Amino acid sequence: MTAQKLVAEGLGTALLLIGVVGSGIMAQSLTDDIALALLANAIATGCTLYFIITILGPVSGAHFNPIVTLAFALKGEHPWRLVAGYIPVQIISGIAGVWLCHIMFDLSFIQTSSTARTGANQWVSEIFATFGLLLVIFGGLRSRPDTVPTLVAIYITGAYWFTSSTSFANPAVTVARAFTDTFAGINPAHVAAFIVAQFIGLAIALPMIRLLFSHNEDDQT
Q1: Which of 54, 60, 113, 145 is least crowded, fewest Cβ atoms below 10 Å from its Cβ?
Q2: Domain locations in the chain as residue ranges
Q3: What is the pLDDT of residues 8-28, one digit of tens each?
Q4: Where do the TM regions start and end (predicted)?
């Protein structure tokens, strides 16, 4: 059963990066209009999130993100023994997804990004994007669990546009995108700050989630 969960997390994270990076490569090859390329990238990412969460959620919980895994574990809703397996699988599979994109688009297999993504504005964006993602996930689970795939897909599609960082909100995605010098890349030197910001987003989100969405006896009054 554990192996099944790990395979689902690995497959889902790889597919997520294929959606993010592959659509970025395709968009960049078809247009010089950055806004149009970003729109295509955002839509493809949202579509990918919808189907991977829908089909793999019942198997592993469809985390595909170390921050999400840690959030569930810290809330006592995910076994800590699985955290040590989920996070490495998410990171390794994300990189594998990027490399598969390079093969599919006939690019150099091994790359590192030269795209600068740094500055206080982008770090604050990552804090907010991560906070919002967790709010959407746990709020959706509290109100309408069946809508979580749609909610996450819509949130990330929108967050591509309303955050200056384009809403990575995921350490595995951040690390993996350092391995591609394409539209979706991030300079490896800027990865650590993004991940720190994402953890700050987690730290801010957890008390808010407990305040807003914890079940208690007063819910019925």
Answers
A1: 145
A2: 2-214
A3: 999 999 999 999 999 999 999
A4: 37-59, 80-100, 120-141, 148-169, 189-213
